[in-house]
Specification:
With 413 residues, this protein is α+β, with helices and mostly antiparallel strands. It is built from twelve helices and nine strands. The strands form two sheets. It has a five-stranded antiparallel beta sheet with strand order 1-2-3-5-4. Strands 7-6-8-9 form a four-stranded antiparallel beta sheet, sandwiched between helices. Helix 9 runs antiparallel to helix 12 and helix 10 runs antiparallel to helix 11.
Length: 413
């Protein structure tokens, strides 16, 4: 059991507008508080996430901060498009899938918790790790934290138009001055042909990048890579990509197939042709002609993102290399036929649903002003028992839509 005073603030981007907020909880030293009333320990010295291991294989037992997340696009109080399809599970499932599939891709550990705020029941929030320099230092036992660089993408919907590339940009969260400019220049120079694959591999951890891309494509994370990118490096080491928000994937949306007025990425059913969707601005005319049995999910005709964060171009560059492309295909095959087969995915979903199922009744009741409490039956039987199970059965496996898409796109190179 852990009991200590700490700092709390609202956390997140667009999800701040939801009735149920996300929060960041930060450990503070006693000197931060009015010491006559509060006492801070400076660290949360507790295994908040059981079986969460550090890079050296030992249990992670101290944290500087953590996040209580409302689920974002997958929050039950999300009153936007197709809100009855929310599950409160997708982002956590994405992290569990990633942590089991890769030792090379950092992701935020996940644990659903019941929250009491100001003495009132606040429902279920997902406790998550906070990906920043403290996270990297704690996981990798790095003492000189000032040499850890963390760079994240940001979103500004007041800048330009959705598909002109101006909404999305990078900012440096932590690290030595000038690292942001170096990173952006590296990506632009790679796209411009100023590096060979071998030269680029000196600066980017290509095994990490390959697995990171494969996992995002596998889970149908179409809110990436024009958005939701985070990367870190230590000192003069290589850049490594971290899984970020993935709450839009795994059959969360189908609405983009019904209207070009909707953002084109809002289609994440099992048959989503999301690898060609993200690479489309980078492909040659010859490649596009080979792929033009495109049935429109996600719908290219509604618009595509012109690589504002340079990750689409980086993946296209890497897939031109025979070794990377072969490794990518083999890893995708391993994902779908060994690590996360339909039966494995279904078992994971059943396990995680069972953990929150009873409490979800109270959760729906607590937020009944934002979403009908009668949605509980729909949540259990249709969203999870229907659309998410169907996604898992049709997306993965040797004959699943994921591998069909990987083969179709990679065979054009």
């Amino acid at each position: 059991m852990l009991s200590q005073d700490a700092g709390i603030r609202i956390f997140g981007g667009s999800s701040r507008s939801l009735a149920q907020k996300s929060f960041r909880i930060s450990a503070r030293k006693s000197s931060y508080f009015n010491e006559t009333k509060y006492d801070g320990a400076g660290k949360f010295k507790y295994a908040l996430f059981p079986n969460r291991l550090k890079a050296d294989g030992t249990e992670l037992t101290q944290y500087d901060s953590f996040v209580l997340r409302n689920g974002g696009n997958d929050s039950i109080v999300n009153n936007g498009a197709q809100n009855v399809r929310t599950s409160l599970l997708r982002d956590g499932l994405a992290s569990l899938i990633t942590s089991s599939a890769s030792d090379n891709v950092d992701c935020m550990a996940y644990r659903p918790v019941i929250v009491i705020l100001n003495g009132q029941y606040y429902g279920i929030l997902n406790m998550r790790e906070h990906e920043n320099d403290n996270y990297v230092a704690n996981v990798y036992d790095i003492e000189d934290k000032e040499n850890i660089t963390v760079i994240s993408s940001e979103l500004d919907t007041d800048a330009g138009e959705r598909y002109d590339g101006s909404w999305f940009y990078y900012k440096q969260d932590e690290g030595p001055e000038g690292e942001l400019d170096k990173f952006i220049k590296l990506l632009k120079d790679i796209k411009a042909g100023k590096y060979t694959f071998e030269q680029a591999s000196k600066y980017i951890d290509m095994q990490n990048f390959m697995e990171y891309c494969a996992i995002n494509v596998f889970i149908c994370n179409t809110d990436w890579p024009h958005n939701n990118v985070r990367v870190w490096k230590y000192s003069d080491g290589k850049y490594k990509f971290m899984l970020r928000d993935a709450d839009l994937g795994m059959a969360r949306y189908t609405v983009a197939s019904q209207s070009y007025d909707m953002p084109s990425e809002l289609y994440t059913k099992a048959e989503a042709q999301n690898l060609r969707y993200l690479l489309w601005p980078c492909l040659t005319s010859e490649q596009k002609n080979k792929l033009y049995n495109y049935e429109g999910v996600p719908p290219i005709g509604a618009g595509t993102y012109p690589d504002p964060l340079h990750i689409q171009g980086l993946l296209n560059f890497c897939l031109k290399n025979d070794g990377f492309r072969n490794d990518f295909v083999k890893y995708c095959e391993k994902l779908a036929t060994v690590l996360w087969t339909p039966s494995h995915l279904n078992a994971l979903l059943s396990e995680r649903k069972a953990i929150i199922e009873v409490e979800m009744k109270y959760n729906f009741y607590r937020w009944s002003e934002s979403i009908s409490e009668t949605y509980y039956d729909y949540w259990s039987e249709t969203t999870i028992g229907g659309s998410m199970v169907q996604w898992m059965n049709m997306r993965s496996g040797a004959d699943g839509y994921f591998l069909k898409e990987v083969y179709a796109v990679c065979n054009t190179y």
